[in-house]
Design goal:
The protein is an alpha+beta fold. About 35% of the residues lie in helices and about 10% in strands. Helix 4 packs antiparallel against helix 6.
Length: about 190
């Protein structure tokens, strides 16, 4: 802990600083948009890193609960770093299914979280599957450069709560069949 001299020349006590690595390639979101989606080989490399990081978090008993490209950063060597643990939840064993809070970013929010949006105390859900759902959305975004569902978000949430998810199709998208199948399985309501 460092003391910093404040504006009026007096030391400020108990000020905390967070120092992070430099991410020369910035957010994954901007990186993908600048490339209009990623080539399959680059996508496999980065998505593999994302899943490895998530696997490590889940093995440590941590659910991120706000996985999105804006919370993933790339260094100069294209090593992916997961960041922003402001909505994380630590769990142990069966307590992974004791989560109730509606938290995260709507475009990446799993149905079981979204249905808690208007409730004070929501239904229980498991943290790791929520992270995997968001990663399915991220994978699609990495491949195509845009989200799999159209806005407005309130219609998105009504749809994911009532119907099986259907990824919109566009003839310009050139997604390998196995990649699209993986995305569909990751965002399935009942995986």
């Amino acid at each position: 802990m460092y003391n910093e001299v404040g504006r009026q020349g007096r030391p400020e006590r108990n000020k905390r600083y967070l120092v992070t690595e430099l991410a020369e390639n910035g957010e994954l979101f901007n990186f993908v948009q600048n490339h209009n989606g990623l080539q399959p080989a680059v996508c496999r490399q980065l998505f593999g890193q994302l899943l490895n990081g998530l696997h490590t978090l889940h093995n440590m008993g941590i659910a991120h609960r706000d996985m999105k490209p804006e919370n993933c950063f790339l260094d100069a060597s294209l090593i992916l770093k997961v960041a922003d643990f402001g909505t994380h939840k630590v769990f142990a064993g069966d307590s992974a299914s004791d989560l109730k809070t509606c938290t995260g970013t709507r475009q990446y929010m799993a149905p079981e979280v979204a249905k808690n949006e208007r409730k004070r105390l929501g239904d229980k859900y498991q943290g790791p599957p929520v992270d995997i759902f968001a990663c399915g959305i991220i994978l699609f975004f990495m491949l195509v450069g845009e989200p799999p569902f159209l806005k407005p978000l309130n219609r998105y949430h009504k749809k994911i709560l009532s119907d099986p998810l259907e990824i919109r199709e566009d003839e310009e998208w050139k997604i390998e069949e196995n990649a699209l199948d993986l995305v569909a399985k990751m965002i399935a309501i009942e995986p």
